[in-house]
Amino acid sequence: MADRDETPDERFDRNWNELLQELRVAQTGVQILFAFLLTIPFNQRFAEITDVQRATYIVTLLLTALATLCLIAPVSHHRILFRRGRKKELVEASSNLASVGLVFLWLSVVGAVFLVFEIVVAMSWAIAVGAALGVSFIVVWYVFPTLKR
Questions:
Q1: Helix crossing, 51-81 with 8-39: angle to 10°?
Q2: Where do transmembrane segments lie in this chain (predicted)?
Q3: Model confidence, pTM
Q4: What is the pLDDT of residues 54-70, one digit of tens each?
Q5: Burial level of 57, CB count in 10 A (0-12/13-18/19+)?
Q6: Taking CA 64 as the corner, what is the angle to CA 14 and CA 43, rounded to the nearest 5 degrees?
Q7: Cβ contact 26:105 at 8 Å
Q8: Are 71 and 30 in contact (CB under 8 A)?
Q9: pLDDT of residue 124
Q10: Residues 67, 101: contact at Cβ < 8 Å?
């Protein structure tokens, strides 16, 4: 913002710190979801799931792995670029990774909830709840903030 009294380096430092705070929230969510998904195959009932449920599980697991990859990648980037005067590039790349990671996280959460409803209730409920949840994420995560810009 032009009304802040800060140098470009101070702005990149502030942006980096704000991004780290955002990533901490997202990383916690994706790590809990990933841990949950990694334990499912060790449940005795897992052998009884249908092919559609197995496919839903695999896709959701992969989406969660991709969310984890993108949301934790800024840590690795920071380690490699630390003290190299590349804060601008670090902030830009990490911001892009966070945006992509949030999309994967959104799809992962919808997939996990879809899977649970598919197994516990019925496919029709899974579709209805998954669609409603998917739209809710889009509205709350993307439409509301875009309207406030």
A1: 150
A2: 23-43, 55-76, 97-117, 123-144
A3: 0.86
A4: 999 999 999 999 999 99
A5: buried
A6: 140
A7: yes
A8: yes
A9: 96
A10: yes
Residue 2: which pLDDT band, with cuts at 50, 70 and 90?
Answer: low
Residue appearing with tokens 């994967």: 104
The number of helix segments (H) and strand segments (E) in the chain equals: 5, 0
Task: Find out whether 89 and 80 touch, Cβ atoms under 8 Å.
Answer: no
From residue 44, alpha-carbon distances to 6, 41, 49, 111, 148 in Å are: 58, 8, 10, 21, 48
Measure the CA–CA gap between 74 and 92, rounded to whole angstroms.
10
Q: Report how far residue 138's alpha carbon sits from residue 133's, in angstroms, rounded to the nearest whole number.
A: 9
Amino acid (1-letter code) at residue 11? R
Q: Do 130 and 102 contact (CB within 8 A), yes or no?
A: no
Q: Residue 126: which of 49, 26, 28 has the closest Cα?
A: 49
